[in-house]
Specification:
mainly alpha, 20 helices, single chain
Length: 442
Protein backbone atom coordinates (compact mmCIF):
# COMPACT_ATOMS: atom_id res chain seq x y z
CA UNK A 1 0.00 0.00 0.00
CA UNK A 2 2.80 2.38 0.92
CA UNK A 3 4.67 1.50 -2.27
CA UNK A 4 1.57 2.28 -4.31
CA UNK A 5 1.21 5.66 -2.61
CA UNK A 6 4.87 6.38 -3.24
CA UNK A 7 4.44 5.61 -6.95
CA UNK A 8 1.37 7.86 -7.09
CA UNK A 9 3.25 10.67 -5.35
CA UNK A 10 6.19 10.36 -7.76
CA UNK A 11 3.86 10.27 -10.78
CA UNK A 12 1.97 13.38 -9.65
CA UNK A 13 2.46 16.35 -12.04
CA UNK A 14 3.83 18.53 -9.23
CA UNK A 15 6.41 15.87 -8.34
CA UNK A 16 7.41 15.48 -11.99
CA UNK A 17 7.84 19.24 -12.32
CA UNK A 18 9.88 19.32 -9.11
CA UNK A 19 12.19 16.59 -10.46
CA UNK A 20 12.59 18.46 -13.76
CA UNK A 21 13.38 21.69 -11.96
CA UNK A 22 15.88 19.91 -9.74
CA UNK A 23 17.71 18.72 -12.83
CA UNK A 24 17.87 22.34 -13.94
CA UNK A 25 18.92 23.50 -10.48
CA UNK A 26 21.52 20.75 -10.44
CA UNK A 27 22.99 22.39 -13.53
CA UNK A 28 22.61 25.82 -11.92
CA UNK A 29 24.59 24.53 -8.94
CA UNK A 30 27.09 22.37 -10.80
CA UNK A 31 28.04 24.84 -13.54
CA UNK A 32 29.14 27.58 -11.08
CA UNK A 33 30.74 24.89 -8.93
CA UNK A 34 32.79 23.83 -11.95
CA UNK A 35 33.43 27.17 -13.65
CA UNK A 36 33.64 29.76 -10.85
CA UNK A 37 36.82 28.40 -9.23
CA UNK A 38 38.51 28.32 -12.62
CA UNK A 39 37.26 31.77 -13.67
CA UNK A 40 38.14 33.36 -10.31
CA UNK A 41 41.68 32.01 -10.46
CA UNK A 42 42.31 32.74 -14.14
CA UNK A 43 40.83 36.25 -14.24
CA UNK A 44 42.23 37.39 -10.86
CA UNK A 45 40.09 39.50 -8.46
CA UNK A 46 39.96 42.75 -10.48
CA UNK A 47 38.82 41.21 -13.77
CA UNK A 48 36.55 38.76 -11.94
CA UNK A 49 35.00 41.68 -10.04
CA UNK A 50 34.28 43.43 -13.36
CA UNK A 51 32.46 40.31 -14.61
CA UNK A 52 30.46 40.07 -11.38
CA UNK A 53 29.56 43.77 -11.59
CA UNK A 54 28.48 43.50 -15.26
CA UNK A 55 26.39 40.41 -14.63
CA UNK A 56 24.76 42.16 -11.69
CA UNK A 57 23.87 45.07 -13.97
CA UNK A 58 22.42 42.60 -16.50
CA UNK A 59 20.22 41.08 -13.80
CA UNK A 60 18.94 44.54 -12.87
CA UNK A 61 17.95 45.20 -16.51
CA UNK A 62 16.43 41.72 -16.71
CA UNK A 63 14.10 42.59 -13.86
CA UNK A 64 12.91 45.66 -15.80
CA UNK A 65 12.11 43.62 -18.92
CA UNK A 66 10.47 40.82 -16.95
CA UNK A 67 8.25 43.42 -15.19
CA UNK A 68 6.98 40.87 -12.68
CA UNK A 69 5.67 38.49 -15.37
CA UNK A 70 7.48 35.55 -13.78
CA UNK A 71 4.70 35.82 -11.16
CA UNK A 72 1.90 37.60 -13.03
CA UNK A 73 2.34 35.55 -16.22
CA UNK A 74 2.55 32.29 -14.28
CA UNK A 75 -0.62 33.17 -12.39
CA UNK A 76 -2.45 34.11 -15.60
CA UNK A 77 -1.32 30.93 -17.36
CA UNK A 78 -2.32 28.77 -14.39
CA UNK A 79 -5.76 30.42 -14.19
CA UNK A 80 -6.52 30.23 -17.94
CA UNK A 81 -4.82 26.98 -18.99
CA UNK A 82 -8.17 25.20 -19.38
CA UNK A 83 -9.28 27.78 -21.99
CA UNK A 84 -6.92 27.78 -25.04
CA UNK A 85 -8.22 31.12 -26.35
CA UNK A 86 -7.71 32.94 -23.05
CA UNK A 87 -4.32 31.30 -22.57
CA UNK A 88 -3.18 32.41 -26.04
CA UNK A 89 -4.35 35.95 -25.37
CA UNK A 90 -2.41 36.03 -22.10
CA UNK A 91 0.75 34.85 -23.92
CA UNK A 92 0.44 37.50 -26.66
CA UNK A 93 -0.19 40.27 -24.12
CA UNK A 94 2.82 39.34 -22.01
CA UNK A 95 5.13 38.98 -25.01
CA UNK A 96 4.05 42.38 -26.37
CA UNK A 97 4.65 43.98 -22.99
CA UNK A 98 8.13 42.47 -22.74
CA UNK A 99 9.06 43.70 -26.22
CA UNK A 100 8.04 47.23 -25.23
CA UNK A 101 10.09 46.96 -22.06
CA UNK A 102 13.11 45.63 -23.97
CA UNK A 103 13.07 48.79 -26.06
CA UNK A 104 12.74 50.90 -22.90
CA UNK A 105 15.85 49.24 -21.40
CA UNK A 106 18.12 50.55 -24.17
CA UNK A 107 18.23 54.23 -23.07
CA UNK A 108 18.80 53.05 -19.50
CA UNK A 109 21.82 51.04 -20.64
CA UNK A 110 23.14 54.01 -22.61
CA UNK A 111 22.70 56.22 -19.54
CA UNK A 112 24.74 53.76 -17.49
CA UNK A 113 27.47 53.99 -20.12
CA UNK A 114 27.78 57.69 -19.35
CA UNK A 115 27.58 57.69 -15.56
CA UNK A 116 29.06 54.36 -14.36
CA UNK A 117 32.87 54.42 -14.66
CA UNK A 118 33.28 50.62 -14.70
CA UNK A 119 30.99 50.38 -17.74
CA UNK A 120 32.21 53.49 -19.56
CA UNK A 121 35.76 52.13 -19.34
CA UNK A 122 34.61 48.74 -20.68
CA UNK A 123 31.68 49.38 -23.10
CA UNK A 124 31.84 45.84 -24.50
CA UNK A 125 30.77 44.55 -21.08
CA UNK A 126 27.76 46.87 -21.15
CA UNK A 127 26.70 45.66 -24.61
CA UNK A 128 26.95 42.01 -23.60
CA UNK A 129 25.11 42.70 -20.34
CA UNK A 130 22.25 44.35 -22.28
CA UNK A 131 21.98 41.46 -24.76
CA UNK A 132 21.94 38.96 -21.90
CA UNK A 133 19.27 40.99 -20.09
CA UNK A 134 16.98 41.23 -23.12
CA UNK A 135 17.24 37.51 -23.86
CA UNK A 136 16.68 36.58 -20.23
CA UNK A 137 13.75 38.98 -19.89
CA UNK A 138 12.01 37.64 -23.01
CA UNK A 139 12.32 34.01 -21.99
CA UNK A 140 8.80 32.50 -21.64
CA UNK A 141 9.68 30.26 -18.70
CA UNK A 142 6.65 31.67 -16.88
CA UNK A 143 4.41 30.03 -19.51
CA UNK A 144 5.79 26.54 -18.91
CA UNK A 145 5.59 27.00 -15.14
CA UNK A 146 1.96 28.15 -15.38
CA UNK A 147 0.80 25.23 -17.53
CA UNK A 148 2.92 22.83 -15.40
CA UNK A 149 4.93 21.39 -18.29
CA UNK A 150 8.51 21.91 -17.27
CA UNK A 151 10.42 18.76 -18.12
CA UNK A 152 11.43 19.47 -21.72
CA UNK A 153 12.27 23.15 -21.22
CA UNK A 154 14.30 22.29 -18.11
CA UNK A 155 16.43 19.74 -19.94
CA UNK A 156 17.04 22.15 -22.82
CA UNK A 157 18.25 24.86 -20.45
CA UNK A 158 20.38 22.29 -18.66
CA UNK A 159 22.12 21.41 -21.93
CA UNK A 160 22.89 25.07 -22.70
CA UNK A 161 24.37 25.60 -19.23
CA UNK A 162 26.80 22.70 -19.59
CA UNK A 163 27.71 23.80 -23.12
CA UNK A 164 28.58 27.25 -21.76
CA UNK A 165 30.73 25.66 -19.06
CA UNK A 166 32.68 23.65 -21.62
CA UNK A 167 33.30 26.71 -23.77
CA UNK A 168 34.49 28.65 -20.70
CA UNK A 169 37.28 26.14 -20.12
CA UNK A 170 38.13 26.14 -23.81
CA UNK A 171 38.44 29.90 -24.37
CA UNK A 172 39.04 31.70 -21.04
CA UNK A 173 42.80 31.68 -20.37
CA UNK A 174 43.67 34.92 -18.57
CA UNK A 175 42.44 38.32 -17.27
CA UNK A 176 42.18 39.65 -20.84
CA UNK A 177 39.52 37.00 -21.55
CA UNK A 178 37.02 38.40 -19.04
CA UNK A 179 34.87 39.60 -21.96
CA UNK A 180 34.58 36.00 -23.17
CA UNK A 181 32.92 35.06 -19.87
CA UNK A 182 30.36 37.79 -20.48
CA UNK A 183 29.93 36.75 -24.12
CA UNK A 184 29.19 33.16 -23.10
CA UNK A 185 26.77 34.44 -20.47
CA UNK A 186 24.91 36.42 -23.14
CA UNK A 187 24.99 33.59 -25.70
CA UNK A 188 23.58 31.13 -23.18
CA UNK A 189 20.64 33.44 -22.47
CA UNK A 190 19.97 34.03 -26.17
CA UNK A 191 19.98 30.35 -27.16
CA UNK A 192 17.80 29.35 -24.18
CA UNK A 193 15.29 32.08 -25.08
CA UNK A 194 15.08 31.01 -28.74
CA UNK A 195 14.61 27.34 -27.81
CA UNK A 196 11.88 28.17 -25.30
CA UNK A 197 10.05 30.38 -27.81
CA UNK A 198 10.06 27.60 -30.40
CA UNK A 199 8.49 25.21 -27.90
CA UNK A 200 5.89 27.72 -26.74
CA UNK A 201 4.78 28.69 -30.24
CA UNK A 202 4.31 25.04 -31.11
CA UNK A 203 1.44 25.13 -28.59
CA UNK A 204 0.30 28.74 -29.01
CA UNK A 205 -0.30 30.11 -32.50
CA UNK A 206 2.12 32.96 -33.19
CA UNK A 207 0.57 36.39 -33.56
CA UNK A 208 2.08 39.87 -33.61
CA UNK A 209 1.15 41.47 -30.26
CA UNK A 210 -1.12 44.50 -30.29
CA UNK A 211 -0.12 47.72 -28.58
CA UNK A 212 -3.17 48.37 -26.40
CA UNK A 213 -3.41 44.89 -24.81
CA UNK A 214 0.37 44.91 -24.34
CA UNK A 215 0.19 48.19 -22.45
CA UNK A 216 -2.67 46.70 -20.42
CA UNK A 217 -0.45 43.78 -19.46
CA UNK A 218 2.24 46.22 -18.32
CA UNK A 219 -0.28 48.01 -16.11
CA UNK A 220 -1.67 44.73 -14.74
CA UNK A 221 1.76 43.57 -13.62
CA UNK A 222 3.02 46.90 -12.32
CA UNK A 223 2.59 46.07 -8.64
CA UNK A 224 4.46 42.80 -9.03
CA UNK A 225 7.16 44.63 -10.99
CA UNK A 226 7.53 47.08 -8.13
CA UNK A 227 7.87 44.11 -5.79
CA UNK A 228 10.48 42.49 -8.02
CA UNK A 229 12.48 45.72 -8.34
CA UNK A 230 12.38 46.17 -4.60
CA UNK A 231 13.58 42.59 -4.05
CA UNK A 232 16.39 43.27 -6.52
CA UNK A 233 17.46 46.16 -4.30
CA UNK A 234 18.49 43.62 -1.66
CA UNK A 235 19.60 40.78 -3.99
CA UNK A 236 21.14 41.40 -7.44
CA UNK A 237 21.73 45.11 -6.73
CA UNK A 238 24.03 44.33 -3.79
CA UNK A 239 27.20 43.96 -5.88
CA UNK A 240 26.32 47.09 -7.87
CA UNK A 241 25.78 49.10 -4.68
CA UNK A 242 28.98 47.75 -3.13
CA UNK A 243 30.86 48.57 -6.34
CA UNK A 244 29.92 52.24 -5.97
CA UNK A 245 31.92 52.41 -2.71
CA UNK A 246 34.52 49.66 -2.85
CA UNK A 247 37.21 48.58 -5.38
CA UNK A 248 36.67 45.62 -7.71
CA UNK A 249 38.66 43.27 -5.44
CA UNK A 250 36.24 43.87 -2.55
CA UNK A 251 33.31 43.34 -4.92
CA UNK A 252 34.87 40.03 -5.94
CA UNK A 253 35.15 38.82 -2.32
CA UNK A 254 31.57 39.82 -1.54
CA UNK A 255 30.38 38.41 -4.88
CA UNK A 256 32.02 35.06 -4.14
CA UNK A 257 30.22 34.72 -0.79
CA UNK A 258 26.89 35.92 -2.17
CA UNK A 259 27.12 33.62 -5.20
CA UNK A 260 27.46 30.64 -2.87
CA UNK A 261 24.45 31.81 -0.89
CA UNK A 262 22.25 32.45 -3.95
CA UNK A 263 23.23 29.16 -5.59
CA UNK A 264 22.45 27.38 -2.32
CA UNK A 265 19.04 29.03 -2.13
CA UNK A 266 18.32 27.63 -5.58
CA UNK A 267 18.35 24.16 -3.99
CA UNK A 268 15.02 25.12 -2.43
CA UNK A 269 13.54 26.91 -5.43
CA UNK A 270 12.12 23.96 -7.46
CA UNK A 271 9.60 23.04 -4.77
CA UNK A 272 8.22 26.56 -4.57
CA UNK A 273 8.26 27.04 -8.36
CA UNK A 274 6.34 23.81 -8.96
CA UNK A 275 3.83 24.42 -6.18
CA UNK A 276 3.06 28.09 -6.99
CA UNK A 277 0.98 27.54 -10.18
CA UNK A 278 -1.07 24.81 -8.49
CA UNK A 279 -1.70 27.12 -5.54
CA UNK A 280 -2.80 29.86 -7.96
CA UNK A 281 -5.17 27.48 -9.75
CA UNK A 282 -6.67 26.26 -6.44
CA UNK A 283 -7.16 29.81 -5.20
CA UNK A 284 -8.82 30.78 -8.50
CA UNK A 285 -11.19 27.82 -8.09
CA UNK A 286 -11.92 28.87 -4.45
CA UNK A 287 -10.48 25.61 -3.09
CA UNK A 288 -8.76 27.34 -0.21
CA UNK A 289 -8.53 24.37 2.15
CA UNK A 290 -6.78 22.24 -0.47
CA UNK A 291 -4.44 25.16 -1.11
CA UNK A 292 -3.57 25.28 2.59
CA UNK A 293 -2.83 21.54 2.61
CA UNK A 294 -0.48 21.92 -0.35
CA UNK A 295 1.16 24.93 1.30
CA UNK A 296 1.77 22.89 4.46
CA UNK A 297 3.51 20.14 2.45
CA UNK A 298 5.71 22.70 0.73
CA UNK A 299 6.63 24.34 4.04
CA UNK A 300 7.68 21.00 5.53
CA UNK A 301 9.85 20.12 2.53
CA UNK A 302 11.50 23.52 2.07
CA UNK A 303 11.94 24.25 5.78
CA UNK A 304 13.73 21.00 6.62
CA UNK A 305 16.17 21.28 3.73
CA UNK A 306 16.77 24.98 4.34
CA UNK A 307 17.73 24.64 7.99
CA UNK A 308 20.19 21.84 7.28
CA UNK A 309 21.65 23.80 4.37
CA UNK A 310 22.19 26.93 6.47
CA UNK A 311 23.96 24.98 9.22
CA UNK A 312 26.19 23.18 6.72
CA UNK A 313 27.25 26.39 4.94
CA UNK A 314 28.12 28.11 8.22
CA UNK A 315 30.21 25.17 9.43
CA UNK A 316 31.99 24.45 6.15
CA UNK A 317 32.47 28.02 4.93
CA UNK A 318 36.32 27.99 4.94
CA UNK A 319 36.49 24.69 3.07
CA UNK A 320 33.84 25.73 0.53
CA UNK A 321 35.50 29.07 -0.20
CA UNK A 322 38.95 27.51 -0.51
CA UNK A 323 37.75 24.80 -2.92
CA UNK A 324 35.63 27.09 -5.07
CA UNK A 325 37.66 30.29 -5.19
CA UNK A 326 41.09 29.55 -3.80
CA UNK A 327 43.01 30.52 -0.67
CA UNK A 328 43.16 34.19 -1.70
CA UNK A 329 39.41 34.51 -1.04
CA UNK A 330 39.24 32.73 2.34
CA UNK A 331 40.20 35.58 4.68
CA UNK A 332 37.69 38.05 3.23
CA UNK A 333 34.85 35.84 1.93
CA UNK A 334 34.38 33.40 4.84
CA UNK A 335 33.17 36.05 7.37
CA UNK A 336 30.83 37.42 4.70
CA UNK A 337 29.35 33.99 3.95
CA UNK A 338 28.77 33.30 7.66
CA UNK A 339 26.78 36.51 7.92
CA UNK A 340 24.86 35.98 4.68
CA UNK A 341 23.91 32.39 5.59
CA UNK A 342 21.42 33.85 8.10
CA UNK A 343 19.35 34.81 5.06
CA UNK A 344 18.39 31.20 4.25
CA UNK A 345 15.77 30.58 6.98
CA UNK A 346 14.62 34.20 6.74
CA UNK A 347 14.16 33.96 2.96
CA UNK A 348 12.15 30.74 3.30
CA UNK A 349 9.60 32.50 5.51
CA UNK A 350 9.45 35.52 3.22
CA UNK A 351 9.10 33.47 0.02
CA UNK A 352 6.38 31.15 1.33
CA UNK A 353 4.25 33.88 2.89
CA UNK A 354 4.80 36.21 -0.07
CA UNK A 355 3.80 33.58 -2.66
CA UNK A 356 0.60 32.90 -0.74
CA UNK A 357 -0.29 36.60 -0.85
CA UNK A 358 0.40 36.74 -4.61
CA UNK A 359 -1.92 33.80 -5.31
CA UNK A 360 -4.65 35.84 -3.58
CA UNK A 361 -3.90 38.83 -5.88
CA UNK A 362 -2.67 40.91 -2.95
CA UNK A 363 -0.05 42.44 -5.24
CA UNK A 364 -0.21 45.92 -3.74
CA UNK A 365 0.44 44.61 -0.23
CA UNK A 366 3.41 42.55 -1.42
CA UNK A 367 4.80 45.59 -3.26
CA UNK A 368 4.68 47.73 -0.11
CA UNK A 369 6.53 45.10 1.91
CA UNK A 370 9.23 44.63 -0.74
CA UNK A 371 9.68 48.39 -1.21
CA UNK A 372 10.20 48.82 2.50
CA UNK A 373 12.84 46.09 2.60
CA UNK A 374 14.59 47.46 -0.50
CA UNK A 375 14.69 50.96 0.95
CA UNK A 376 16.15 49.60 4.19
CA UNK A 377 18.92 47.80 2.30
CA UNK A 378 19.90 50.78 0.16
CA UNK A 379 19.83 53.18 3.11
CA UNK A 380 21.77 50.88 5.42
CA UNK A 381 24.15 49.89 2.61
CA UNK A 382 25.03 53.53 1.94
CA UNK A 383 25.76 54.02 5.65
CA UNK A 384 27.35 50.70 6.68
CA UNK A 385 29.46 50.05 3.56
CA UNK A 386 31.63 53.19 3.89
CA UNK A 387 32.03 52.42 7.62
CA UNK A 388 32.59 48.66 7.61
CA UNK A 389 33.13 47.69 3.97
CA UNK A 390 31.65 44.45 2.57
CA UNK A 391 30.71 43.21 6.08
CA UNK A 392 28.48 46.25 6.49
CA UNK A 393 26.83 45.44 3.16
CA UNK A 394 26.24 41.86 4.32
CA UNK A 395 24.50 42.93 7.53
CA UNK A 396 22.45 45.42 5.56
CA UNK A 397 21.14 42.59 3.35
CA UNK A 398 20.30 40.37 6.34
CA UNK A 399 18.36 43.22 7.97
CA UNK A 400 16.40 43.88 4.77
CA UNK A 401 15.52 40.20 4.34
CA UNK A 402 14.33 40.01 7.95
CA UNK A 403 12.09 43.06 7.53
CA UNK A 404 10.51 41.48 4.44
CA UNK A 405 9.82 38.22 6.30
CA UNK A 406 8.20 40.02 9.23
CA UNK A 407 6.10 42.15 6.87
CA UNK A 408 4.72 39.16 4.93
CA UNK A 409 3.84 37.29 8.14
CA UNK A 410 1.95 40.32 9.45
CA UNK A 411 0.07 40.60 6.14
CA UNK A 412 -0.90 36.91 6.21
CA UNK A 413 -2.05 37.24 9.83
CA UNK A 414 -4.30 40.17 8.97
CA UNK A 415 -5.87 38.39 6.01
CA UNK A 416 -6.08 34.76 7.15
CA UNK A 417 -5.09 33.63 10.65
CA UNK A 418 -5.74 29.98 9.76
CA UNK A 419 -3.05 30.11 7.08
CA UNK A 420 -0.63 31.79 9.50
CA UNK A 421 -1.27 28.98 11.97
CA UNK A 422 -0.34 26.47 9.25
CA UNK A 423 2.86 28.39 8.55
CA UNK A 424 3.95 28.68 12.17
CA UNK A 425 3.07 25.09 13.09
CA UNK A 426 5.09 23.73 10.18
CA UNK A 427 8.04 25.95 11.11
CA UNK A 428 7.95 24.67 14.70
CA UNK A 429 7.67 21.06 13.50
CA UNK A 430 10.66 21.50 11.18
CA UNK A 431 12.74 23.02 13.99
CA UNK A 432 11.87 20.12 16.33
CA UNK A 433 12.75 17.55 13.66
CA UNK A 434 16.10 19.27 13.03
CA UNK A 435 16.88 19.33 16.77
CA UNK A 436 15.93 15.67 17.08
CA UNK A 437 18.16 14.72 14.15
CA UNK A 438 21.08 16.65 15.64
CA UNK A 439 20.69 14.88 19.01
CA UNK A 440 20.60 11.47 17.30
CA UNK A 441 23.74 12.33 15.32
CA UNK A 442 25.53 13.22 18.55
Amino acid sequence: MRLKRLRQAIAHPISQNVFALYWLQFATFMVPLITLPYVARVLQPSAFGLVVFSQGFAFVLMVLIDWGFSFHGTREAASTREDPAELAQAVHNVRGAQLLLSAASLPIALGALLVVPKLSEHPEFLILAWVAAVAGGLSPSWYFVGVERLRLISFIQLAFRFLGAGLTFAFVRGPDDAWIVMALFAASNVTAWIAADILMYREIKFRVPRLRPSLGAVRGSTMLFISTVAVTLYTAFNVVLLGLFEPSAAVAHFGAAERILRVSLQVLAPIGTAVYPRLAALQAAHKHERARELLAIAIAAVGAVGLVLAAALAALAPLIIRILFGSAFVAESVPLLRVLVLIIPIAIVSAIAGSWLVTLHMDRRVARIALGAGAINVALGCVLTPLFGPVGMAWSVVTAEASAAVGTLIAVARYDRDTLSHLLSRMRLGARQLASSSQEAE
